[in-house]
Amino acid sequence: MRAHRARPAHRHRRLPEAITAFLRPRPARELPGVGTKAAATLTEYGLHTVGDVADVPQLTLQRLLGSRAGRALHERALGRDTTTVDPTPAPASISAEYRFARDELDPAQHRSALLSRCQLGARSRDSGRIAAGVTCTVLYADRSGTRRGRTLTEATHHTVLLARAAYGIYDSLGLQRARVRSIALRADALRPDEQATRQLALDQGDDKPLALEAVADRARSRYGHNVIYPAALAVRASGRRGS
């Protein structure tokens, strides 16, 4: 019988070197999590290849791209990926519906209902997901309905940005005289939030709402989901919430 010979240990030691040799000349935009905005930022600072990114201190990348994105990109440029593999498939979308107590004609109430459903952004943040699109479904008094979606310029899980997209869809429907029975909002094409192309592209006017959102998230995690909500919802006419 022919004896099986163990592989020389030096072959295993060469594996990291082979990975490094393969990765370093590759374009930085090929790294997982590098979207259009992140690629533009890297190019602006002269980081064109994976090797360029690997040679930059992690703290520098975090200043350019944000704490989580910078840390993840640095690890991947070095050929390391510490992402936990979850065998349970993540949902491709999440949705929330608002059912009015009676058929509602007031556009202000329609928009208020939309804002309340935009709190699904908090659910996305809790699960570490971002949405690439938003779909709004309106059911009318005659049981007919309208569904319209919009692809976001940048995937997000921020309530203020989801609300902005939802309002844009609502305005495009022209429902000033429509009697609405329910409004549903769906966050589409969910993916891990580490793939976000980052808040550096956001308008400065969004800074305050996003800071308040972070405070609200911490309060909700400690005291419950109903402890903080937009002031506009405090004056909303009573209605029945759907799931």
What topology emerges from the helices and strands here?
Elements: H1 9-23, H2 36-44, H3 50-55, H4 58-65, H5 67-77, E1 94-104, H6 107-117, H7 120-126, E2 129-140, E3 145-156, H8 159-173, E4 180-188, E5 191-192, H9 207-223, E6 240-241
Antiparallel strand pairs: 1-4, 1-6, 2-3, 2-4, 2-5
What would CATH call the homologous superfamily of the largest domain? DNA polymerase, Y-family, little finger domain
Strand fraction equals 15-25%
Portion of residues in helices? Answer: 40-55%
Q: Which structural category do the helix and sheet elements fall into?
A: alpha+beta
* Mean pLDDT across all amino acids: 79
CATH topology name of the largest domain, in short, is Dna Ligase, domain 1
Which residue ranges are poorly predicted, with pLDDT under 50 across at least 5 consecutive positions? 8-13, 235-243
Round the Cα radius of gyration to an integer and report it: 23 Å
Which architecture of the largest domain does the CATH hierarchy give at level 2? 2-Layer Sandwich
The count of domains is 2
Short structural description:
This protein is of the alpha+beta class.
Question: What does this 3D model show about the protein?
Answer:
With 243 residues, this protein is α+β, with helices and mostly antiparallel strands. The chain folds into 2 domains: 17-77, 5' to 3' exonuclease, C-terminal subdomain (DNA polymerase, domain 1); 94-237, 2-Layer Sandwich (Dna Ligase, domain 1). Helices cover 41% and strands 20% of the residues. Strands 1, 2, 3, 4, 5 and 6 form a 6-stranded antiparallel sheet that branches. It starts with 8 loop residues before the first helix and ends with a strand. Residues 8-13 and 235-243 have low confidence and may be disordered.
